From TrEMBL:
Pfam families: MFS_1. This is Major facilitator superfamily (MFS) profile domain-containing protein. GO terms for molecular function: monocarboxylic acid transmembrane transporter activity. Keywords: Membrane, Transmembrane, Transmembrane helix. InterPro entries: MFS, MFS_trans_sf, Proton-linked_MCT. The keyword Membrane applies. The chain crosses the membrane at residues 16-41, 61-78, 85-104, 141-162, 174-192, 263-284.
């Protein structure tokens, strides 16, 4: 090997990344199917537990809050545990909440199990989308297109399966069958390996080496200027509780308007879309 050659590690953009896409499709298909048919699947439970519109609205709000907080806390938790272990924990929370819901006999138990399931949804979705972004950089649009197409195709067959299960096994039997399907989330999480295991060594030219050095130097200068501007505040809170919160949540990201808007805009769209998907089946069934 020529020692004068310089190499850089790049994302796979294929290879094991396609296996990661398969795991992403399994997890997202399971989550999306539960969200789309939420009102239909749990309609009999709502009647059995005598849950009115006020309690249903409260339940949907608590689920949304639990899902959002779980997704928001995923990044801080990754600093203390590996990505796959956190993925297993998220899959366990989702399956535990869904399975225990089958045997819920009170509104309180139903609320608790649904909130636990929502925590699993928030973490799973965040971890899987992050994994796809890490494995695909140049071919990211192609990867997302493939996953969304397959998920949309599966969405055509999901209603038929749900209807057939309801007709033959009832609501509780349908939930138990769904539990058997969602248990595959553990397999999907297993194949989502750390991207550093599959990085490609790519040779770079001397001009690219020089450009990378200039870029790293520019980043160091920018970080030094930011640290100088905020030096007084950091000295005051260096050993305090708020400094720990800032390190965990990486609040520096929100100081930039450019990075803040992509966080706020899609979040509002997702909330509106989720509320529409949850309430529409219930409204249609009442008609």
């Amino acid at each position: 090997m020529d020692k004068s050659k310089k190499y850089v590690l790049e994302a796979p953009d294929g290879g094991w990344g396609y296996v990661v896409l398969a795991g992403f499709i399994i997890n997202v298909s399971v989550i999306s199917s539960m969200n789309v048919f939420y009102g239909i699947i749990f309609h009999d439970y709502f009647v059995f537990l005598k849950m009115d519109s006020v309690r249903l609205t409260l339940l949907n709000g608590l689920n949304a809050i639990a899902m959002s907080l779980a997704g928001f806390l995923t990044a801080p938790l990754l600093k203390y545990m590996p990505q796959r272990y956190l993925g297993y924990s998220a899959s366990a929370a989702f399956n535990f909440g869904l399975f225990c819901t089958v045997f819920a006999q009170s509104q309180l138990a139903f609320f608790i199990f649904q909130i636990v399931q929502s925590v699993g949804v928030g973490m799973t979705f965040n971890l899987n989308t992050s994994a796809v972004n890490e494995y695909f950089v140049k071919n990211r649009v192609l990867a997302i297109s493939i996953t969304q197409t397959i998920i949309a195709i599966l969405a055509f067959f999901t209603p038929l399966m749900i209807q057939w299960c309801f007709e033959n096994f009832g609501s509780r039997g349908t939930l138990l069958i769904l539990c058997c399907v969602t248990i595959h989330m553990f397999l999907a999480t297993t194949v989502i390996q750390p991207v550093k295991w599959h990085m490609r060594r790519v040779e770079i030219t001397p001009k690219e080496v020089e450009a990378n050095l200039l870029l790293e130097e520019h980043k160091k200068i920018t970080e030094k200027m930011n640290n100088t501007d905020n030096g007084n505040d950091e000295m005051k809170e260096k050993d305090g509780f708020w400094q720990l919160i800032r390190d965990l949540l990486d609040v520096k990201l929100f100081r930039s308007f450019t990075f803040s808007m992509p966080c706020v805009g899609p979040s509002l769209c997702i909330v509106v879309d989720l509320l529409f998907v949850v309430f529409l089946p219930q409204a249609l069934q009442q008609k």
